[in-house]
Amino acid sequence: MSNVPKLRFKRFSGDWEKNQLLNIGKIITGSTPSTHIVDYYNGDKLFVSPSDMNTNRFINSTKTTLTELGFSKGRKVEKYSVCFVCIGSTIGKIGQLSEDSITNQQINCITANKDNSNDFIYSLLESNAPKIKLLAGVQAVPQINKTDFSKLKFMFPQKQEQEKIATFLNQVDTKIEQLTKKEKLLQQYKKGVMQKIFNQEIRFSPKRTSSQAQGEADDGIEFCEWEETTVGKNISNIGGTALEKFVSENSTYKFISIGNYSINGKYIDNGQRVEFNEKTKTKLLNKNDLVMVLNDKTSSGDIIGSSILIDEDNKYIYNQRSERITCKDNILPLFLWHYFNSKQFRKKVFSLAQGGTQIYINFPSIKSMLIKLPCLEEQTKIANFLSSIDNKIEQTQKQLEKTKEFKKALLQQMFV
Q1: Are both 112 and 92 inside the same structural domain?
Q2: Which structural domain, as residue segments, surrounds residue 54?
């Protein structure tokens, strides 16, 4: 085994040295101040649990907070220390403290000594998290105790090289955080503007482009009033059929089942394919068909009413628990897709849903729902405007995924 990484900054040389974590810094296992004492909680001090360690590197806020009194009852962990989940189903989650904090007992924290870098330790543990997780074994409650965690051995360079590596990877993490924030803001913007559009707080003008939507047009000209109607008067529909026995890895036809629906109406390719035969061809979809999910196998009902817009002829075959929807001439499929996946419509669908452990809705209930439709020209402007936001979200998501893959490759090559 080599004692140096594959990818290294040029001005550094010499072997890296193996060492245990206990020799690299101070390790603290978290503790929880008594939850029976009200005065300990709801202050401005962070109390970190695994659920607070998400996509961002730094932990800036926590669901549970402590008062100064509560903080004094726990084991303080210094700012910039590295948190590693060692108990439970989320073993391997990692984060870094943005301020002095306390953690619960599922987390071990390491604070680097003067000869090592907290930032380097973060990236080192992130790179090795999958291997460390395997140490927990198969048991009811997976666990890596503090002793075993402290004895973990890794290869370390001198502090100056640690800091160089850490500075470079920090820049990549910053880029990831910026893209994550940008995606979140775009998603929030889309939700807000959709609500205003479908409540008619924002209207489009015949003489304005879709990107210039506002409450009142400069020229004073507006489209006609939206017409109240029902879903059923504007579409035709055909229910799905159980086709699981025809699932085939060798087919090119994509199989739409519950696993393909996302809560925002985006198609998720889960790799399932179905053979084309006399029975399945009756469920073959055309471009601009919509497919709505009517059954959620979970009790949350999150995907009930979510609809997929088909982008290609003769490529998709749909299963049971879904309904094929074809638009009549007075309604634009892209507009209806945006409307079906709006918060307002999905909220109405959920209010009509039934069931306990599985949530479902009958399509006749959907068909009887009242909706308001603008004219085709305004539908087009609305659909294009919302799709332009979707394009920005998708571009940001691709940038984010590309940056994450770049970081993953770096972690594999910059550590021994």
Answers
A1: yes
A2: 17-156
As for how many domains the chain has, the answer is 3
Smallest CA-to-CA distance from 390 within 292, 293, 259, 264 is with 264
pLDDT in tens, 72-123: 999 999 999 999 999 999 999 999 999 999 999 999 999 999 999 999 999 9
pLDDT at 215: 44
Do 251 and 263 have their domain in common?
yes
On average, the pLDDT of the chain sits at 93
Which pLDDT score is estimated for 217?
42
Domain of 381, CATH number, reads: 1.10.287.1120
What does pTM read for this prediction?
Answer: 0.84
Q: Are residues 140 and 178 in the same domain?
A: no
User: Within a domain: residue 10?
Assistant: no
Rounded to whole angstroms, what are the CA distances from 10 to 14, 123, 192, 266?
11, 20, 50, 45
Same domain for 97 and 54: yes
Same domain, 69 and 110: yes
